[in-house]
Amino acid sequence: MSEIATRVAPPLPTATEKLKFYGMWVTAAVVLVLLPHVFGSGGSLTTFSLIGISIIFSLSYNILLGQTGLLSFGPAVYYGLGGFLVIHAINIIGANKLPIPLPVIPLIGGLTGLLFAALLGWVSTKRSGTAFAMISLGVAELIASSALILRTFFGGEAGVSANRTKLFKLFGFSFGPQIQIYYLVAAWTLIAVIAMYALTRTPLGRMCNAVRDNPERVQFVGYNPHVVRYLAFCFSGFFAGIAGALAAINFEIANSAYLGAAQSVTVLFATYIGGIGFFIGPIVGAIFVTFVSLGLSDLTQVWQLYFGLIFIAVVLFAPGGITGLLMMHRPLLRAGTLPQVLPSYLEALMPTLAMLAGLVLALETIVHYTVNPGDDSHIKAFGISFDAASPYIWAMSAVLLVGGFLVARKSWVRVGEAWDKAGAVPREEDVTA
Amino acid sequence: MSAAIELREIKKSFGNIPILRDINLSVAQGERHALIGPNGAGKSTTFNLISGYFAPTSGTVKLRGEVVSGLPPYQINRRGLSRSFQVTNVFANMSVWENLRCAVLWSTGQRYAFWKNIDNLPEVRERTAQILSDIHLVARRDVPAGLLTYAEQRALEIGITVAGGADVILLDEPTAGMSHAETERAVALIRRLTEGRTLLIVEHDMSVVFGLADRISVLVYGQIIASGTPQEIRGNPKVKEAYLGEEAA
Fold first, then answer.
1. How far apart are CA B19 and CA B131, in angstroms?
2. Other Cβ atoms closer than 10 A to B31
């Protein structure tokens, strides 16, 4: 390395930094191995498997949204087709007793996703922005509706099922029990996460960022933004296909829901709520959204409504997502001014929670009167029983909602002030640095 | 030896409105050539035609003897022509280092590689470091380009333009909006970075034009009315009337 590069270029990672980096992945692997020993119930193993699948799918989606700046409304196409192909593949392999074990089957899903992305992506990636979003939506609707029409392949409403235990057994694993499926999903999740992280560190990965920031200028440094977008689309399709394959293996069925708009929207939510600006964001989002959707559906009948409200709140108030919110605090943590803002958070917490409680009461009451007006008015939401017909409850809801909002609004201003004060220090340091 | 850039009978209309009427222009290899003219004369349109942003309505653009009109911008860039923009046009969310590195990648043969670690490419690292130091932004290496000062962004704009090592450089008003001191520094930078290369520059600041250019062409209402050395242009009555005269008055 020449003198100028050593002097001017960002320093190459030292041995300790490299060790830390690889240590992180090893730690992740160890955590994945140990997780079932801490939470061993069938329910938590299923939850972990779903989270793993969601992590791969969300990260694959972020190759488009966060890395390349492409808003797609149809990622479920590649996820779903991967799932369907894998179900058919398991049936064919099982029937013909081919020597292909289950652990390599997700590759079939990945290649399916890649193939369809390669076929359908060339036209849609010609443009970014609205044109791309609209074409992705059109393709998604086309594929989703053909799932109900082409019954021989997609199995109509019932879908297609398969028996994953009928395959060639490698080292005696039958993949019947959920614990074996968990380890299969965990291994593929780790591989896919590492592969997608590595992709961001390549010339193509960096040009994806450049295309996101300024596709016009990219053309004047020798790159065709269409090709960059197309390749990103293909990679995204490949990993989405792997996620769909794992889902199909997990449930032993693929149906039209795999391909539908709800599936696409869920991954969009997970990715965006987690934060599209950081590699780890979609991982955080996948974990959060899987837990919340499983948890909320037990607590309330209209969990999707709350889910939507969370999404709107993130778009409006935290466009960087959960990860963005956390990362905002890094400069304060470095400058040691984080303790200055924490009291204002506590202060804001109470009125904000009161406001949210009022909102929940109001929503659940409205749901009672609009969705099931004939039922008993003593309803239960979030584990709390109350009488939706009682004027006291209505009054309480109004007081909490309005009063909470008025007080909370003041406390939010205080948070902003505390932030300005705490943030001033790192900013000054930045100028002098 | 064929000219670095040659425009022959170039016409360009948007709808029914002719912007360029009949442009004939030849820039020799290694020459620093300035394109001047009043606002709306078609200077930026000429740049857009040469760099492939638009195709001409008729006529041909040749780069070192090879016809490039009708090719997309990235094809022209790969043939060794690079341009800057009048309005700063950088990768705003990426650091200065990342900006310059993206501009180096194609010319070092990385293409769309997804199997190489970007931090493990010594040639890319070397050239990026060289350009970074050339444009004096070493201290701002890790700052997102969108947060740079105006003059720094203009320097980065020039850095991105020359980073790929193109030997024909087009600069569109590189000193627009700069203070006197900043302009002087920018001109020194341009002079140094385009050493041994062909330069075509659009500029409004006459001291920059006459200080930098070997030859000057004057574009008025979509036509080149004169081409020559700075002395010839200064003495040309048509130019005086159409352009310099107004400035002097």
1. 36
2. 17
Return the domain boundaries, chain A. 16-319, 330-432
Percent pLDDT > 70 in chain A is 98
Domain A16-319, CATH number (from 1.25.40, 1.10.3470, 1.10.10, 2.40.128): 1.10.3470
A197 touches chain B (CB under 8 A): no
Per-residue tokens: B235: 């003495």
Cβ <8 Å between A1 and B97: no
What pLDDT score does B248 carry?
45
pLDDT for B110-140, tens place per residue? 999 999 999 999 999 999 999 999 999 999 9
CATH fold for domain B5-248: Rossmann fold (3.40.50)
d(CA A229, CA A215): 10
Q: What is the DSSP string of A334-390?
A: HHT-HHHHHHHHHHHHHHHHHHHHHHHHHHHHHHHHHT-TTS-SEEEETTEEEETT-
The maximal CA–CA distance of chain B, rounded, in angstroms, is 62
Between B105, B107, B130, which is nearest A4 by CB? B130
- Helices B150-163/B122-134 angle, 10° precision: 140
Side-by-side strand order, sheet with B215-220: B66-67, B58-63, B5-14, B17-27, B223-228, B215-220, B32-36, B198-202, B168-172, B81-83
Of A424, A363, A316, A323, the residue nearest A58 (C-alpha): A323
Interface residue of B75, B112, B168 to substitute, partner A, most A CBs within 10 Å: B112
Q: For residue A204, what are its two tokens?
A: 């193509």
A219–B114: do the CB atoms touch at under 8 Å? no
Q: Give the Cα separation of A275 and A291 in Å (integer).
A: 17
Per-residue model confidence as pLDDT tens digits over A141-171: 999 999 999 999 999 889 999 999 988 888 8
d(CA B229, CA B220): 18
Q: Which two tokens stand for residue B49?
A: 């035609």
> What is the widest separation between alpha-carbon atoms in chain A?
81
Query: Does any CB of chain B come closer than 8 Å to the CB of residue A196?
Result: no
Tell me the domain boundaries of chain B. Answer: 5-248
Tokens encoding A57: 């799918």
A5, two tokens: 């590069």
